[in-house]
Amino acid sequence: MSQRLNVMKLAPEAYQAFFAVEKYLHACGLPLGTIELVKLRASQINGCGYCVDMHSRSMKEAGESDERLWSVATWREATVYTPAEKAALALTEEATRLADRAAVPDEVWQEAAEHYDEQQLASLIVAIAMINSWNRIGVTARLTPGA
């Protein structure tokens, strides 16, 4: 499948706004590794090959182990993630799959709140929202993985 159109070229102001949010996320105090795990997991759920490729590569370049990369899709059974990372991944799944339940369960929220303060939770919500937005651009425009 070929790319349908270049959204970045056609809507540069929108991309600049998205990149401003990404800049915020890199400075917000959440561990960058956690942000990347969130981005990778949401991208897997949403079927965005471009984002899966990009975030897997960036995690690998940052020194992430192969085992942690390979087991993101099965994070519940994996022993390589911290309890805080697992809480972030659970929140990511619930917020990404809103059509399945239309609410994030209280127990998932409470688990995340045990590991992150309110400022970090707010940033985590922003990170989840942003990657879901990026995924929708990638899937709809058919961005090419590895490009």
SSE order and pairing:
Layout lengths: L6 H4 L1 H16 L4 H15 L2 H13 L4 H5 L12 H14 L1 H4 L4 H10 L2 H24 L6
Helix pairs in contact: 2-9, 3-4, 3-6, 3-9, 6-8, 6-9
Which residues form runs of ≥5 with pLDDT under 50?
A: none
Spatial extent as radius of gyration: 15 Å
Say how many strands there are.
Answer: 0
Arithmetic mean pLDDT: 96
The helix/strand class is: mainly alpha
Number of helices: 9
Strand content: under 5%
Biggest sheet, open or closed, and with what strands and sense? none
Describe it for me?
The chain has 9 helices and no strands. It is mainly alpha-helical and 147 residues long. Helix 3 runs antiparallel to helix 4 (49-61), helix 3 packs parallel to helix 9 (118-141) and helix 6 (83-96) runs antiparallel to helix 8 (106-115). The longest helix is centred in the last third of the chain and has 24 residues, at 118-141. The relative contact order is 0.20.
Protein traits:
147 residues; 71% helix; mainly alpha
Summarize the structure.
The protein has nine helices and no strands. With 147 residues, the chain is mainly α.
